[in-house]
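2024-03-11 09:14:02 DEBUG pipeline.ingest accepted 1 chain
2024-03-11 09:14:02 DEBUG pipeline.ingest length=224
2024-03-11 09:14:03 DEBUG pipeline.predict start
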Amino acid sequence: MRVAIAGAGAVGRSIARELIRSEHKVMLLERKLDHVEPEAIPEAEWVLADACELSLLEASNLETYDVVIAATGDDKANLVLSLLAKTEFGVNRVVARVNDPRNEWLFDGSWGVDVAVSTPRMLASLVEEAVSVGDLVHLMTFRKGQANLVEITLPDNTPLAGKPVRKLLLPRDAALVTILRGGRVIVPQQDDPLEGGDELLFVASVEVENDLRAAVGLTNIATG
C-alpha cells in the first residue's frame, strides 16, 4: 500500500517504521523543519508541509495514496486533514489519532475518519481487560461502521466450557474473530471447544452488545 502519515514525531515515525518493515510505501508529512530528518527513516519519502494546507497536499499527490494516517499531536489538525483526505482527495481509508479523549466524539465519518485511535482510551481498555474477567471490554471503535472490537474473557466456571464454537448463538450483528488462549491465537472453527479463561474477540454493533453478553452467559447484563 501507499500510506501518507502526517506528523513525524515519535508516533508517526513508529508507524512509518512498522509499515516499511511490512514493505509498504510511506510518505511522512511534517510541518516543523527541525522534525524533518530523512536519515532517521531513509526508506520513507519526507515532505516538509503543513498537512492542513490544501495546496501542499495537492503538491504531495495525496490522491495517489491508499491510506492517510493523521498522527499529529493536534486534534484540530488531525480532523482537518481527515476531512480533506476524504472529501478533496478521495482517499479510501483515513485513520486519525485522538490526543484528547474529550474530542473523541468528533472523530467520525462526518469528518472523514474511518478509524479513530485514542491512545488514552486504548490504555484504559487494556487496564479494564486485565481486571474484567466475565465482562465486555471495548478495545477499538470502527466509527464508519458503528461497530466495536470487544473482548470477553470467559470465567473459569463458564457454562460454555467444553462446548464447540457452533453452540455459541451470537446475535445477528456480531462475529467471533479470534480466541486467545494462553500464548495461542486461534482462528475459531465450528468444532473448536471453548474453555474457561479464553479471551474472545468479537466485532459487534453497539445495539447488540447486551445480546452478546447474554450469548456468552454473562450475568451482568445492562438494562438501560
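2024-03-11 09:14:41 DEBUG pipeline.report The first strand starts at residue 2 and ends at 6.
2024-03-11 09:14:41 DEBUG pipeline.predict end
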